[in-house]
Amino acid sequence: PCHPAEIQLGILKILPDTPMREIAQKRGWIWSQSPPYTILQTDTFTFEDLRTCEALARILNLYWNKQEFTAEWQQLLQKQKASQVLFALLNRHRELGWSLHSISKAKRAEVFAHIYS
Predict the structure, then answer these.
(1) How confident is the model over 28-41, as pLDDT tens digits?
(2) Is the distance from CB of 69 to CB of 112 less than 8 angstroms?
(3) All structural domains of the chain with their residue ranges
């Protein structure tokens, strides 16, 4: 199995005066006209889909990229797909009303323990 040290998930940006801008216009994409020019909707991703991708990127930063729960990840990934674990973490944050940044290690351990049990 592949266990990268860090996983980066980001949303494409549509920068002015680039070939991507023309492609995005032809496909009817919607993006922010001011920096950081974030895509808001595409011909295949809804606004909600892209917000979920952003939330999952933050979950990855909180729980995978800090490399603090390596043993727990290994055990969970033997039983579940990575996407299932990520959505479980995201859903737990939403249930608790917690943000997706600046969460202490103790609180993250609490969330991880909840989905681990």
Answers:
(1) 999 999 999 999 99
(2) yes
(3) 46-116
